[in-house]
Amino acid sequence: MTISIIPVTEANLDMVLHLIAAYQTFYHVTPDTERNRAHFGALATTPALGAQWVATTHIGQAVGFVTAYRTLSSVSAAKRCLLNDLYVTPDQRGTGVGRQLILHCTHWALAEGYPGVYWQTALDNHPAQKLYDALPTSREAWYTYTLQGSDLTKQG
Known about the structure:
By secondary structure, the protein is α+β, with helices and mostly antiparallel strands. Helices cover about 35% and strands about 20% of the residues. The protein is globular and about 55 Å long.
């Protein structure tokens, strides 16, 4: 099957919102369409934040997306590109769509002057890790800590 990868814009944002909701559900987050529209719409209108692409079939069906955020690293004193989201519909997994999205994002990052992309995945997301390990990637182990403002009030 031929896949096209196109930038997400204000005009086609609606075609990717259901995929974003499925991605959030996969990570046990309750989707909020209006919050998603505002957040991902900002990427479409403010390129300084990053970029997002959607993979579509020859009939225009959205089957995956990837999101890149522009970040900075204090350790390397350099700009970095965070591939923050990668999602492919279950019926398209294993067909190469995810690989195409990662490579598309990486080529964009290189063209934008980044040395490459980096990302994280859940420890138990073995199907995704199989894809990532099939690419010429390196794997690093880091702990991710999260401190929510609401948690501070519980501390007393």
